[in-house]
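Hi W.,

Here's what went into the run:
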Amino acid sequence: MIITRKALPRRTFVRGLGIALGLPMLDAMVPAMSTLAQTPASGTRRLGFVYMPNGVAKNSSIDYWTPSNEGKNFGMSQILAPLEPFRDRMLVISGLDQNQAEAGDDGASGDHTRGTSSWLTGVYPKRTEGADVRNGISADQIAASVLGRDTALPSLELGIDLNFLAGQCENSYSCAYLNTLAWTSPTTPLPTENNPRIVFERLFGDGGSPEAQAERARKKRSLLDSVLEDLNRLQRRVGPGDRVVVTDYVDAVREVERRIAKAETQTDSDLALLDRPKGIPERFDEHVKLMYELQWLAFRADLTRVVTFMLGRELNFRTYPEVGVTEGHHGLSHHQDRPEQIAKYAKVGVYQAELFRGFLEKLQSTPDGDGTMLDHTLLLYGAGLSNPNTHAHTDLPLLVVGGRDSRIEGNRHVVFRGQVPMTNLLLTLLDKVGVRTDTLGDSNGRIPVDTLPDV
Amino acid sequence: MRAATFALVIAVLLAPNGVEPVRVVEAQQQVDARAFMKQYCVSCHTQQAKQRGTVPVALDDLDPANVSRDARTWEQVVRKMRAGVMPPSGMPRADKTTHERFLTTIEGDLDRAARVMPNPGRTEAFHRLNRKQYQNAVRDLLDLDIDVTALLPPDDSSYGFDNIAGVLKISPTLMERYLTAAQKISRTAVGLPPSSPNIDYFRVADDRAQDDRLPSQLFGTRGGASINYTFPMDAHYTIRVELSRDLNEQVPIYQEPQLLEVSIDGERLNVFTLPGVAGPPPPPPSEPVAASDVPADDPAANAQPAARGRGAGAAQRGGGTGARRGGGGGNRQGQAQRNRADRDWEIRVPVKAGPHQVQVAFVKQSSAVAETTRLPFQRPYPAGVNIAETRTGAYLRSVEIAGPFDATGPGNSPSRQRIFTCQPSPSPTTATATTPAPRNRNADVCARTILTTLARRAYRRPVAAADIEPLMAFYRAGLAGGSVDEGIDQALQRLLISPEFLLRVAADPAGVPANTPYRISDVELASRLSFFLWSSIPDEELLRLAEQRQLRNPAVLEKQVRRMIADDRFGSFVEQFAGQWLFLRNLAASVPVQQNFPDFDDTLRESFRIETQMFVDSVIREDRSALDLLRADYTFLNERLARHYGIPNVKGNRFRRVVLPPDSHRGGLLGQGSILTVTSYPDRTSPVVRGKWILENLLGTPPPPPIPGVPPLKPPSFAGKVLTMRERISAHRNSPVCASCHSMMDPLGLALEHFDGVGKWRALDESGAPIDASGALPDGRKFDGADGLRTALLTSDRFITTLSEKMLTYALGRGVEYYDMPAVRTIVRNAGRDDYRFTSLIRAIVESAPFQMRRSHS
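Here's what came out:
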């Protein structure tokens, strides 16, 4: 791949926007890999999480996800087969549980809600629809608090499904728990974005010359400074119990100030010239591809190093007629142990894996510092449910795709026995990206070192 | 004791506002509540049973003589019994009179206790505007329509609504978006150039039929798209149009040339032609003319809209050639040429700042009428699966509007007229405006006037110097850096990210002791009203009355409520409240699968939405009984929807009121395609989902969630036989653990089985068996089919109570708690005196203690 740094003429910019956004377009329009080229990287410095809603196609006897044998050179399952080209980077992990997603003392159903909300927190979410919504800090946000210090956006939260639907949330759990994986504090969920155009604008601004962008940034900072004064006054108007909200607000303002300052040092006018996505593509695969594309772009411009991506929201009723699935996603996931239904559900998993492979290929083919982008990236791909028919949170489907620098020995299927919480794996992944933290939710250790050499 | 005295005063104060005077009649009919409990409740609901986990609550130590002590539990008792869920079917129940007297006694005692010690609840201190409210506030503040979905992320919901204060959090992500949104909105409103030209893309759904004239399109056209677009400045803009392709991304071959015209505000700007196979295209019916809003004395008007590249003229001239070349239709070169046909379909035109209607539509050709109407399937374009192309004429895929280019000035948009209530100074950008400049005043004084006017509306209260100073500081900075417009823009950006604008703040007034109900201020009441009924900020009249402390006058308040319901802005109530209460919002994401529902398309989906929106709107605005939502004998239909429902003699795309034939089974919400579709799976009906929807949204008794760890059902197997829906879900009722809930849900849903997954009437189900739609309410009353279910639902006040609870939740932005139930009963009773007319219901909500009051911090 030959990269020449050249800016596109202005006319091309405007004209380019008129062309239907073909996916290869984004790629083709990247004028130069300026940011990465300037900052040679080594070590694993990116962490991504990809979430499949409604579990995977399996029950107690049929299993389209789990490899047929343990250890090296495992036999690819039907769902994982599309990822064969990346076998050497793959560590399939079986036997881990997310205990905090199980029904607790409040006896509440809400497995889909907890499957999502505890996936990266290891915390049993408080069953409430009120202001006392409470979960834990999620692993991605712990990573972002370190890896995100040097980027314009500490993290990106992306999704596919609309999340403004009515009546789709589980009994007495706020929809907040179902809409995102990312919690920056136990009380602050981060909104996911499903519109590629908005994601693009967040990453690259809405155009203009570098001077104009700098001027806008300066104005934004002074606006934010001034808002802090409003907040001070507000703080005095309300009672002590209500001040925490103002504090959250102040924190949000400060964080945005930091991002703007950071973005200024990262201004890359070439990238701002990219063809902007127009909106949400009608087809699922095009939408997913575009969202992966944006993650790749964000990594490439080093605008963020941490991403969570939900391929759908739990309980969704999307159909996938393009792969022959005409039943709603959630409905089909309750396969009632009928082999033909499980087989049909597997098509969804295969479809998702094919799209994921596209992302891996892109990372693989992009030079980055002393290697490829994939070398410096660590990804967790999986779900918060295993057998969806029983809402099982044990033996979760989890796949780690490790870059060379994460020194994870690939081509392996590791099976844990006994009750090992999934949060142990999350801690280990955090270790791998250099973010040391003692515990996460219900973790009680790390994944034994001998299964992941060189930790 | 001071607190109690205070509370009492409040209670007396509220009485003239419609709070029910103490009722004494019931005392004569009191039942022995203790004996009733003993006989019908506590045989199961004991402490021991609760400890064993067999019942969720124990009732054996409840004291009916002192209900306020356990008000929370008593309210649960009342709710379950009112819904007929308790005592469970199969257990002994009291006769109807005794049952009713027991409930009346308990409710009366609870209500009396609440009158002595009212608990209006405590709304959150901060209530962030959700994105719909933000959008409406910008509209009402700046006379500017924005697409908020492109600016702000969606809001999390709780209790079924997305305006719940407790979960409307502030995150850095959101703050960042507010900042960007403020910048974009302010510059557009003031008429300053955006940082780079806007490019807005409008995609027409693939399965939206374009064979006939669409509403808001010109006569003599078919299909296309009509876009209300706000042009930010007097400038040139490009409008680009693109044709739909077939499944292989090819432009199909049509017999006749396809003429696509682009108009602004009804004035044709250009016609693009796709050659047909039959021969050269006819000349367009008339010559293109310039947009009428360009004044004759404006130099821009002399510039004819120029089609660039191979635009209109070229395409027309080349039409004949294209048709001959592509004549055979099979030749590859012709196809390639056809695929490129719309590559340069773009015009560049001068447009004045402000909102304009951009219309893109095909010229309807006479011979197109002769084409057979596509029957029985209406879906014009296969979604995802490969069935034959059925379109007989070209369709529009997208419209893209870009600009401003070569701006001549900010123009005189409605937003500028709204903002510039005075003219700070003859700014260079407005010197050429055709309207005479308002009287010159000292620029700072004028800017202060402008910003004070805006801030008062935006902050929804009287403003002080301390509110205006920060805005003035930004005004001065902008002024120093450029112009008055820049100054106003900077100040407006500052205003739009102020917490005073983004948050509704409720602070306890000074001197109110802890945990004490107090009446909220008139100004706060004005905001509660406007956010409840308009999803927006108060208007001038409401704000003025509040500032004059007139709103607490019941006569004034009533008049305002009536005025607000009659106002256009009330449309947001129907859209937001009904949209979420009834799940109509989910229609947008409903994609019934094509194999099973071949004639479902976006046109039908849109028709469903319009029908229910117009129907709910009519019930409210015509001040009908809320019960009409279930029982009305009319609805709103166009031809497409009437055909779907099997109702004859409705022609054309226009929706009109239609009185339903008695045998149509369609009266009320339960017969509407919208609701029947959002409660179905993509491939079939789901009686469970429908039943649950009725229990939750019409009866207010959501079934408890499935008990964790219940093993999945073994589906009943009848080798080789296709099961009826009733058979498929029969296993639910054969398993005791499932039956406790499914015996409530399933029969309600099965009653609607005559309506398929997209609401079409059918006599036989998928298995070919006749549909058995008989069932019973939780309280045992039997019914048959949709008509029977409707009648059964109308015989209890559960529907009105549920509607009141939902509306109160929406009005307050918090969940309804047990201590709100006395208020809910008052609302139902007050509205009941007036046959539950909708305005009475809304007024009763507005007059209720939770709406008028707030409890101080504990």
